[in-house]
DNA sequence: AATGAATGAGTCTTCATTCAT
DNA sequence: AATGAATGAAGACTCATTCAT
C-alpha cells in the first residue's frame, strides 16, 4: 500500500529542504510556518523534526547548503589562466543561472537581520562572510597581479557582493528585474568602471 | 524633588518613537515587541497606544519622520552652483552626521522585506523609493551637464543608495565600522572611480 | 471664564447618569466604555469617578433610580377605585410615556445576564424583582376581589412583566416597533384575553 | 491503564462545544474567556482553535446546532392530524426534554443583545427569528382552521416564544424553576386562556 | 473639584514543538 | 518511521482605574 506513492525514504529530507528554502525566500523566516513547509513538502509536520531539531536548524542547514553550492559553482568555473575580471564575471554568470533556485535565499540572508535573539545575532552573516572571504582571496591576487586598483580586498569583496545583490534583487520594485545579461553589463559598469567621466 | 526626572509631559511621544526606532533597528519589526518598546521608552504599554493605533502605525511614523528629515538635510545642503559629485558627497557628509540617530533605521528599512500581509506589501519601500527618486533627479541633471557618464538615472541612484548603505551598515560585522571620512572616501572610490585600472 | 459654559456644579452627576443610561441601553454594559460615557456626558473621565467608585456602581445607581422612578409613576397613577385591569393598563400607559427615557434600560436589565463575576450574579435582577413584587401585590388584591382568574400572583406578575417587555422591546427586529397604543391593545389581547377561541 | 480517562479522540470537539455552551450560558459571551472554556473542556487553549477559527465562530456554531436540533425535534413531533394547541403543547413538551442540555443556551440567545460591532448586528437573533418563523407558519394554519383567535401570526408566535422562555428561564431567580408539567400547564393558562374572568 | 494622560492586568490569537498512535 | 492533533508560551491590543496638575 506504500507502493502507490513510492518515494524513496531519503527523498523526504530533500523535499523538506527545498520546500523550506522556497518558503523562506518567499515569505521570510518568521512568516514561514512549519505547517506551510510541511504542506509544501508533502510530509507530516512531525517528519520535519526527525531531520531538524527545530526551525532554526532547518534554516541553518539551508544556508550551509547554499554556501557549499556557491563555492562548488565558483571552483568549477574558475580558470586561473584568465584575468580577474573575466573570472569574476564568469562566476557571476554561472551563479546567475541558479538564481531561480537560490537567488532569493541569498537575498533573504542579506535582508534578514529580522531575527529574535534565538537566531544567533551574527549567525546569518555566515553566508555573506563566507562569500566575502572567498572573493577577497581572489581580489588579493588580482591586486597583486595589478589587474585591479589597489584597495582593501575584504572591503572590495564586500562591496562587490552588495552590488551583485542589489542588481539581482527581485523583491524591491525599485528597479525592473534585470535579466542575466543586464546584470553582468551593469555590474561591469558600476563596479569596475565607475561613474566618473574619464 | 521632581528635578531628577523632570520630563516635560510631551516627552512621552518622542520617547516612544526613539525607543521604537532603536528596537526596530536592532531586532527588526517582528522581533520587536510592544512590551519591549514600552519598557525601553520607560512608559506603560498602553501609553504607546494613545499615540499610535497599532504597531504598524508606529513603524510607519518612524519611517515617515525619517524621510522628512533626510529630505530636509539634503535640501539644506544642496548648492546648485556646485558640481554633482561635490553635492552628492556633501549631502552624504551631512546625512552621515545623523547616522547615530537614524542610520540604523535606514538600514532596517532596506533590510526588512520581512512582512506578512498586514504590513502593506511595498509599503516599506516608500523610504527607498523616496530617496532614490530624489537622487535620480539630480543624477539626471548631472548627466545632462556631462558631469557623470551616461546611464539610467534611476538605476544609478538605486546603486548609489545601496553602496552608501553597504558602507555605513554597522549591523553586519563584515567590515569594520567606518568613520564618516572613510565612508566618503570609499564611496568616491567605489561609486565614482571604479575598480578597473585605467 | 467659566461663564461661557456656565453649568451648575451639580449638573455633572446628572449628566453622567443620563449619558451612561443611554450608553448602557444602546451598547450594553461591557460594550460601554467609560470614555464613551465621559464624552457623551461632556465631562472628564476622572469626574465620573468623583461620583461613582466604579463602573459597576454607576450601573447600579442607574438601576436604582429607574426602580424609584417606575414606582413613583405607578403610585401616582394608581386609582384604588378602578378595577385591576384598568389600573394595570393605566400604569402601562404612563410607563410607556417614559419609554424613550428608560424603556431601553428596563430591557437591558432584563437582557443582560452578561456580567462577569464582579457584577454580583443576581444583582441585576433587583429591578425585575422589585417590579414583580410590586405588581404581585396588586395581582393579589385583584384576585381577592375576583377581578382576575385565580393564579400564583408572583408568577402572573412575572409573566406580565415579560409580556410587557416583549411588546416594547425595540432591539430585536423580530417584530415592528409598536406605538404606545398598539402595545396596550396587544397587552390586553395576549395577557388578559388569551388566544383560545371562546 | 487508559481506561480511566478513555476518551475517543474525536471527543474533543464535542467537549469544547459543551464546555463553551455551558460557559456562554452561565457568564455570557464577553465574560466567557477562551481560557475558561479550554479549562472547562479539559483541553489546551490551542485545541479550540483547531476546530473554530475564533471565539465568535465557536459561539455561532453552538447557536447553529441549537437551531437545527430544535427544528428536528419539532418536525419529529408534529402531527398534522392534531389540532394546533395539541401540537404546540406537544412540541413544547419535547423541547422541554432538551432543557437540561441546552435550555440555558436558548435563554442566552434571548438575553444577549450584548454585542459590540464584531458580533454581527442581528446575528444572534437568528435563533429567535428562525423559531418565530417556524411557529408563525403553524399559527397561520391554526387561524385558518379557526383553531385560535385571529391575530398577527408573527407577533403571536413571538409572544409565544417569549412566554415559553419566561416560563422555562432558570437564570433569573424570579420564580421557582418549574418542572415540565408545570410549564405546560402555565403556558396553556397564560397563553391560551388568558387572565380575564370570563 | 475636575481633568485626561498614563497605566497594566487581562483578552484573543498564533505557531513552534511534542508525543501517542 | 511518520504523522498531525494537541499544547501553551508569547504577542498585540483594550479599557477600567489612578493620580499629578
UniProtKB/TrEMBL annotation, chains A, B, C, D:
<dbReference type="InterPro" id="IPR036271">
    <property type="entry name" value="Tet_transcr_reg_TetR-rel_C_sf"/>
</dbReference>
<protein>
    <submittedName>
        <fullName>TetR/AcrR family transcriptional regulator</fullName>
    </submittedName>
</protein>
<keyword id="KW-0238">DNA-binding</keyword>
<dbReference type="InterPro" id="IPR001647">
    <property type="entry name" value="HTH_TetR"/>
</dbReference>
<dbReference type="InterPro" id="IPR009057">
    <property type="entry name" value="Homeodomain-like_sf"/>
</dbReference>
<feature type="DNA-binding region" description="H-T-H motif">
    <location>
        <begin position="33"/>
        <end position="52"/>
    </location>
</feature>
<dbReference type="InterPro" id="IPR050109">
    <property type="entry name" value="HTH-type_TetR-like_transc_reg"/>
</dbReference>
<dbReference type="InterPro" id="IPR023772">
    <property type="entry name" value="DNA-bd_HTH_TetR-type_CS"/>
</dbReference>
<feature type="domain" description="HTH tetR-type">
    <location>
        <begin position="10"/>
        <end position="70"/>
    </location>
</feature>
<dbReference type="Pfam" id="PF00440">
    <property type="entry name" value="TetR_N"/>
</dbReference>
Amino acid at each position: 500500500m506504500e507502493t502507490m506513492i513510492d518515494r524513496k525514504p531519503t527523498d523526504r529530507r530533500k523535499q523538506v529542504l527545498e520546500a523550506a528554502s522556497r518558503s523562506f525566500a518567499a515569505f521570510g523566516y518568521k512568516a514561514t510556518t512549519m505547517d506551510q513547509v510541511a504542506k509544501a513538502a508533502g510530509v507530516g509536520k512531525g517528519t520535519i523534526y526527525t531531520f531538524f531539531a527545530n526551525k532554526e536548524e532547518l534554516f541553518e542547514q539551508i544556508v550551509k547548503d547554499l554556501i557549499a553550492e556557491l563555492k562548488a559553482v565558483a571552483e568549477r568555473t574558475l580558470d586561473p589562466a584568465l584575468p580577474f575580471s573575466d573570472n569574476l564575471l564568469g562566476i557571476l554568470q554561472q551563479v546567475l543561472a541558479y538564481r531561480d533556485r537560490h537567488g532569493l535565499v541569498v537575498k533573504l540572508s542579506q535582508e534578514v537581520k529580522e531575527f529574535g535573539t534565538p537566531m544567533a545575532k551574527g549567525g546569518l552573516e555566515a553566508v555573506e562572510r563566507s562569500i566575502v572571504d572567498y572573493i577577497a582571496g581572489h581580489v588579493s591576487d588580482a591586486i597583486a597581479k595589478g589587474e585591479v586598483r589597489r584597495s582593501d580586498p575584504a572591503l572590495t569583496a564586500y562591496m562587490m557582493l552588495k552590488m551583485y545583490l542589489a542588481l539581482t534583487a527581485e523583491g524591491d520594485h525599485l528597479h525592473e528585474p534585470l535579466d542575466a545579461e543586464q546584470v553582468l553589463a551593469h555590474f561591469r559598469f558600476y563596479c569596475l568602471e565607475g561613474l566618473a567621466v574619464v
